[in-house]
Design a protein that fits this description.
This protein is an all-alpha fold and about 240 residues long. It has one domain: Glycerol uptake facilitator protein (Up-down Bundle), CATH 1.20.1080.10. Helix content is about 65%, strand content about 0%. The longest helix is centred in the middle third of the chain and has 29 residues.
């Protein structure tokens, strides 16, 4: 439930934080809100953090057998269920956040920037946007994994990890926002499209690229920064090596 509320707050802050969505205050607003909400969800949610991003959640979930970030036992069905619950909570929270923006600013459906739907600009093409979104999610996932560990008691005392993740978000927004809207999150693009019922032809870029980027980030983390072997699956065995 808290993850749902956190995702709703993040999406609302993203669209409502500053009138000029291409300005530096807007980037800082998103980064600081992301840092705060990641810290809170990490402290409160004892069953596994989703990091408010389905791409990151999915990457952790399908490779959990390697690293055991989600210590949910060895039941494959249970692990898949819990991972899907995290993604579902993010989807519902993101949708409610977009609805809250629409309720607060009724005119947000008008104009070129309909409810903050990400769009291609400055000559970007679907293929170049795919590269931007894949790289951005890859980097964000890698930063998240390198700055956190699966020991919740350690994370709850560490405020530098959320700050590093938030600053990475700010940097990626400055880098990619002019070209793709800097989504790096499937729900960030899907929720406003759903609420406004304005389906962009480039929706596949914002849905598929982050998933690929998240998996690439996980692969690099496991192979280059841990002693784990790469395994796919949700089940985690207790005798798996630790970080």
């Amino acid at each position: 439930m808290f993850l749902l509320v956190a995702k709703q707050t993040f999406i609302f802050t993203f669209f409502f934080g500053t009138p000029d969505r291409s300005s530096s205050p807007r980037f800082l607003t998103e980064g600081l809100s992301y840092s705060t909400l990641i810290y809170l969800t990490t402290v409160i949610n004892k069953y596994g953090v989703g990091y408010l991003n389905p791409a990151v959640t999915f990457a952790i979930m399908v490779t959990n057998k390697s690293h055991g970030r989600y210590q949910w036992g060895t039941s494959h069905l249970t692990d898949w269920k819990r991972g899907c619950y995290l993604i579902l909570a993010q989807f519902v929270g993101g949708t409610l956040g977009a609805v809250l923006v629409l309720a607060t600013i009724p005119n947000s459906m008008k104009g070129e920037d309909v409810l903050g739907i990400p769009a291609l600009n400055y000559g970007s093409t679907p293929s170049s946007a795919f590269v931007f979104e894949t790289f951005g999610t890859f980097f964000l996932t890698w930063v998240i994994l390198c700055n956190t560990c699966r020991n919740r008691s350690v994370i709850s005392k560490n405020v530098t990890a959320p700050m590093a993740i938030g600053l990475a978000t700010v940097s990626l927004n400055i880098f990619a926002f002019p070209f793709t809207g800097a989504s790096f999150n499937p729900i960030r693009a899907f929720a406003p499209m759903l609420v406004s019922w304005s389906w962009a032809p480039t929706i596949f870029v914002y849905l598929i690229a982050p998933l690929i980027g998240g998996l690439l980030g996980m692969f690099v983390y496991v192979m280059a920064f841990t002693n784990f072997s790469m395994k796919f699956g949700c089940g985690y065995a207790a005798d798996t090596k630790t970080d």
